[in-house]
């Protein structure tokens, strides 16, 4: 799918390069331990395992340059489109989800080798990030505890019990079955808490949060949306199980951001005008198109805040009759619930931190399709907190940028390991008025 896979906030050239992988006198070292003879390149991989999409950066560890950026659909969708379904599936068919992902990743690595004329043995370190479930499946951990109260991974339980000193994970590629140098190391950033995983820790690296004094907000939009508010002194985090509706899941004519996906919609008084990705013939609506449509229906009084069409008997709107694309009350209901999860996360985290949207210096909007969302549309339907548009910065896939920075900098790695321990985590569902806020969030109107 079309996703912005780099971030404007992280300049690898500005990093003081201090990777763990080095070479001297024809020998490659990892953390000063010899691992191989020097073959001509020192490469690392930064990988963000999203519930829906996997993004991988191939990084030259000698000069800090990103050589290749690739993305592919997470092949685990056969186990369900959201985290809870994947956990359930993994409990019944242990290892299947992981095997499908490793196979797809190995295929991607071999394509990178062919494209850039190097051998897989020249990959010496891989930094992996993802939400707690995606990360732990990758590392062959039992994820069943993440799906049951208090929704914590076994790794987090062991950390809280003093058995582990960190929630980060380290393994060798050979043990994980990854086609890189057999002595290469796979490192994952630490978790924050519960479903707020290593991907958010990587976001914080990309934003250089340890030097932030102003109060910022991060909304990383996806199947599982994460929200963070704070600065270097204090930070509050929560995870919102939004589900895949805004990525096309469960919507009759919804689709990921592929060519032919409708990305914006305008009502001209008699019919809908639209634009598609790459100007291809329309096949369905991607996330930005769905948000645009909802805002346009509200603006023109064609739909109530509760998702009821102006003609109350009407169940389906013929959106593009000539292409057979429609939008139904059921679609609106599914989107309302996904939006409500995002709404709850932002509303409750802001309130818990003790600030209003106007107090936010910068709202960083991360995640694949979030880069193509019209901000006014998103704010008008309550998908985003009403932060002034000039204070919103779209940062693409910040998680993979943070993972890349960790590949290249020992200081970034140690800083994030220390910082995550002080983040306050909120379990949204245990908030006393959660249900009231969720119901309010189901309405297509700005956050009050």
Write the layout of secondary structure elements.
Elements: E1 21-24, E2 27-30, E3 33-37, E4 43-49, E5 53-60, E6 66-73, H1 83-92, H2 96-116, E7 123-130, H3 132-138, H4 154-160, E8 169-172, H5 173-176, E9 185-188, H6 198-206, E10 216-220, E11 225-230, E12 235-240, E13 261-267, E14 272-276, E15 284-285, H7 287-299, E16 316-320, E17 325-328, H8 329-353, E18 362-366, H9 375-380, E19 392-396, H10 398-408, H11 410-419, E20 424-425, H12 434-441
Helix pairs in contact: 6-10, 6-11, 8-12, 10-11
Radius of gyration using CA atoms only: 22 Å
List low-confidence stretches. 1-10
- The CATH architecture of the domain at 12-208 and 399-420 would be 2-Layer Sandwich
CATH topology name of the domain at 12-208 and 399-420, in short, is Nucleotidyltransferase, domain 5
Mean pLDDT: 94
- Sheet with the most strands? 6 strands, mixed
**DSSP, total strands:** 20
Q: Calculate the terminal CA-CA distance, rounded to whole Å.
A: 34 Å
Helix content: 25-40%
Number of helices: 12
Strand order of the largest sheet: 6-5-4-7-9-8
Net shape:
globular
Strand content: 15-25%
Q: What would CATH call the homologous superfamily of the domain at 12-208 and 399-420?
A: Domain of unknown function (DUF4445)
Which structural class do the helices and strands define?
alpha/beta
CATH class of the domain at 12-208 and 399-420: Alpha Beta
């Amino acid at each position: 799918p079309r996703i912005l896979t780099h971030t404007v906030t992280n300049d690898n050239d500005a990093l003081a390069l201090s990777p763990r992988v080095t070479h001297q006198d024809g020998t490659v070292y990892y953390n000063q331990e010899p691992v191989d003879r020097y073959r001509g390149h020192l490469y690392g991989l930064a990988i963000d395992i999203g519930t829906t999409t996997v993004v991988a950066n191939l990084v030259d560890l000698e000069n800090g340059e990103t050589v290749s950026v690739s993305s592919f659909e997470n092949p685990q969708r056969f186990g369900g489109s959201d985290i809870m379904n994947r956990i359930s599936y993994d409990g019944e068919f242990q290892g299947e989800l992981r095997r499908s992902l490793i196979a797809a990743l190995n295929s991607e690595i071999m394509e990178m080798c062919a494209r850039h004329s190097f051998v897989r043995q020249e990959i010496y370190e891989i930094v992996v990030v993802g939400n707690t479930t995606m990360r732990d499946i990758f590392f062959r951990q039992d994820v069943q505890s993440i799906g049951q109260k208090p929704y914590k991974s076994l790794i987090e339980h062991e950390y809280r019990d003093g058995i582990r000193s960190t929630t980060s994970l380290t393994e060798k590629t050979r043990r994980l079955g990854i086609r890189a140098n057999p002595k290469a190391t796979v490192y994952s950033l630490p978790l924050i808490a519960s479903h707020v995983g290593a991907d958010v820790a990587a976001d914080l690296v990309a934003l250089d949060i340890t030097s932030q004094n102003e109060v910022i907000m991060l909304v990383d939009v996806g199947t599982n949306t994460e929200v963070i508010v704070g600065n270097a002194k204090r930070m509050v985090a929560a995870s919102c199980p939004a589900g895949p509706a805004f990525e096309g899941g469960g919507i009759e004519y919804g689709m990921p951001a592929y060519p032919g996906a409708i990305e914006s919609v305008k009502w001209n008084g008699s019919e809908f005008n639209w634009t598609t990705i790459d100007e291809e013939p329309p096949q369905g609506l991607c996330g930005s198109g769905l948000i645009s449509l909802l805002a346009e229906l509200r603006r023109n009084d064609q739909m109530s805040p509760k998702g009821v069409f102006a003609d109350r008997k009407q169940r389906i709107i013929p959106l593009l009759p000539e292409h057979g694309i429609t939008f139904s009350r059921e679609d609106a209901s599914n989107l309302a619930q996904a939006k409500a999860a995002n709404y709850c996360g932002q509303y409750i985290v802001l309130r818990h931190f003790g600030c209003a949207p106007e107090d936010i210096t910068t709202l960083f909007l991360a995640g694949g399709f979030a880069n193509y969302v019209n901000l006014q549309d998103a704010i008008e339907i309550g998908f985003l907190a009403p932060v002034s548009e000039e204070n919103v910065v779209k940062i693409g896939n910040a998680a993979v940028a943070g993972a890349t920075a960790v590949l290249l900098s020992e200081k970034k790695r140690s800083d994030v390991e220390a910082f995550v321990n002080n983040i306050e985590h909120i379990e949204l569902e245990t908030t006393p008025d959660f249900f009231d806020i969720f119901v309010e969030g189901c309405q297509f109107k700005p956050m009050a």
